[in-house]
Amino acid sequence: MLLDAFRALFWREFNSIHDGAAYFHVRPVTVKRWLDGSTPPNPMAEKLLIIKARGYLPNDLNWQGFKVNEARAVIITPDGREFAPRELEAFPLWRDQYHALKDRYGLIERPPVKPAAAPVTIYRGGKRKQPAPWIPTRDKMK
Fold first, then answer.
1. Sorted alphabetically, which Pfam families does this protein's record hold (predicted)?
2. What are residue 75's DSSP bridge partners?
3. Within 10 Å of residue 41's Cβ, how many Cβ atoms?
4. SS3 state at 36
């Protein structure tokens, strides 16, 4: 990766040098050296930056601008709208309903923007079970 491309991608993904250093698990001075060109960027850091920039989405023009927020489990569109993965499953039905309503009533001006649905946990029907307290084996025998 060329240095200019690394710089552009770095500043697109991170707000500060400290954020980038924390992501790459290096010191901020190392990131400064990569960005000013005195030291070439670590090849693994380049790969990690590309993966972060892609957000695990295909490197294709159709997906340009889309991001994945792993911590909140949402897909962010270029407009800033957020969708949970479960919401995308219902998208074909929503599209059909939208076209039926549009044919019947016309376009809706300024529809309300709703936040993404909360991600569903996969344990016990959406209720995460509390872990059992850990008791060392030597104390269990007493």
1. DUF3653
2. 68, 83
3. 20
4. helix
Is residue 94 a contact partner of residue 104, using CB atoms and an 8 Å limit?
A: no
Residues in the chain: 142
Instruction: Give rounded-to-5 percent helix, strand, coil for the chain.
Output: 45, 5, 45
> Which residue from 52, 28, 36, 48 is spatially nearest to 4, judged by alpha carbons?
36
Per-residue pLDDT of the chain in tens (142 residues, 90 and over written 9): 788 889 999 998 899 999 999 888 899 999 999 999 999 999 888 988 888 887 666 666 777 788 888 778 788 888 888 888 778 888 888 889 989 998 999 988 888 888 777 765 555 555 666 666 666 666 666 6
Question: Which of 71, 91, 92, 93 lies closest to 83, judged by CA?
Answer: 91
Handedness of CA 67, 34, 8, 27 (dihedral sign): positive
Tokens 């690394």 sit on residue: 6
| Residue 113, C-beta contacts closer than 8 angstroms, at least 6 positions apart | 81
- Separation of alpha carbons 29 and 64, rounded Å: 31
Instruction: Give Rg (Cα) of the chain.
Output: 23
- The residue ranges of DSSP E strands in 2-120, in sequence order, are 67-69, 74-76, 82-83
